[in-house]
Amino acid sequence: MDIADLIVEREEEGYFAYHRSALTSDELHRAEIERIFHKSWLYVAHESELPARGDFVRRMVGKRPLFAVRSRTTGEVQVFANSCTHRGATICRQDRGNAKTFQCFYHAWTFDSDGALIGVPDEETFGPTFDKSKFGLVPVPRMESYRGLIFASYDPEIEDLVDYLAGARAYIDAMMDAAEVAAAFSANGNGNGNGNGKPADGWSGPLQVLRGTHEYAIKANWKLLVENSFDGYHLGPTHATYFQFLKDQNVDVSPSTGTMKLLGKGHAVIEYSGSWGRPIARWAEQFGDASREQLDALRAKIIDELGDTGFRMAELNRNLFIYPNLFVMDNNATALRVIEPTATDYMDVAQYELAPRIEDPTVRKVRLESYVTFAGPGGLATPDDVEALESCQQGASSGVEWSLLSRGYFSEEPPMSGELQMRTFWRRWQEQLLDGALVAP
Ligand code: FES
Ligand SMILES: [Fe+2]
User: Fold this and answer.
1) Where is the domain boundary, 120, 153, 186?
2) Atom 4 of ligand 1, residue of closest alpha carbon
3) Average of pLDDT values for 217-246?
4) Domain with 362 in it: what CATH number?
């Protein structure tokens, strides 16, 4: 089927559907990697994960092995292809750590933290013209960081990251500003705590990624998790267990209401009320009394300093989508969700929990519990979503050909439980596949 025919839209009926071969075709999967993943800005890591010189993290990004390292000479982060320039073995073989040099385990070529090749056993056997300086590690074509979020692109011509982020920038800024207020508040020893929540060594930005990554895999096409991660419609039915859990703790579970905004270039956000607690900064029964005074005071401080934006950051939840595969999930805790399209019917997901650089220990405890309870591997939400997505993937091979995304088609104010954000995602997806096809050989 032609890419142009994969989406059918009939405006007068408010009908929008995509063909399910988009979830099952290996040919389309290859095209997506080339024309979407290799032509976008892709999230790699957060700067707080590499606070010291020589710190590194290893990642798969758009199906390519990479590692990011903070240079021992300049203190800047660089992102390299994780591949030896000799015969290709991966150089960085640990998920994270600190290193003086990186030595390839195959024939022991050694590189420094700037990627320069500094050691070749029996170097003279490569001939008189062999020049080590030509065989340094290969950096990704583009790397830029925005407020601590490090992105890479395989497209040397891609627009600058700040332009690419379009309307998503304002949401990232608001989140960082609220975290800055929270960090300063805790550092001053306000509330119940004594202000000794641990800052990330050497990291001075507002937010830090906490140690430990939540990694899981889903036997489903990556686009199903994109849809799911900003789908307000599924909350009640899919997550009934979580709402019962809240109810059992006397949390009022009136349904969430909220809005959806398109942020340009495929990005979008849903912003909604929730009866549950938020570590920045909304106390609810599930958090227990110990954190109440602290959270109420922090909430007042954020609203006082940031006005309406502060109120939104303290009170409302947000699932912010940065096309094509990153979500900032800011609800009962704050996490970055990165979707890696491993195969047509398989994805790897990594979630990194974010917290203010300095945080009151009582609030930190509540945050960790809240995150694990909802989104953790044995949590009350993630397994339900995994089941839903794997069943959609099975259904995609059933012979029923079309998936419907018409909800909210005629709504004037797009509701958070509508499907306009998904229609916009699929349109951008199709556009990029078509654009790429025009220049492909
Ligand atoms: S492949 Fe790395 S030294 Fe040979
Ligand atoms: Fe969900």
Assistant:
1) 153
2) 107
3) 94
4) 3.90.380.10
How many angstroms separate the alpha carbon of residue 343 from the centre of ligand 1?
Answer: 28
Please answer whether residues 95 and 68 qualify as being in contact, where contact means their C-beta atoms are separated by less than 8 angstroms. Answer: no
Residue 190, phi then psi, degrees to nearest 5: -85, 160
- Paired sense of beta strands 402-404 and 15-19, if any: antiparallel
Q: Whose CA is nearest to atom 1 of ligand 1?
A: 87
The 3 state secondary structure assigned to 252-288 is: CCCCCCEEEEEEECCEEEEEECCCCCECCCECCHHHC
**All residues at 6 or more sequence positions from 206 whose CB lies less than 8 Å from its CB, including other chains:** 147, 148, 176, 177, 179, 180, 182, 183, 356, 357
Distance 306 CA to ligand 2 centre (A): 30
Alpha helices in 152-277 (DSSP H): 161-165, 168-187, 222-229, 235-238, 240-248
- Residue 33 token pair: 């990697």
Burial 334-372 (b: 16+ CB within 10 A, else e): bbbbbbbbbebbebbbbbbbbbbbbbbbbbbbbbbbbbb
What digits encode the pLDDT tens for the residues 320-372?
999 999 999 999 899 999 999 999 999 999 999 999 999 989 999 999 999 98
| Residue 16, in any domain of the structure | no
Domain count, the chain: 2
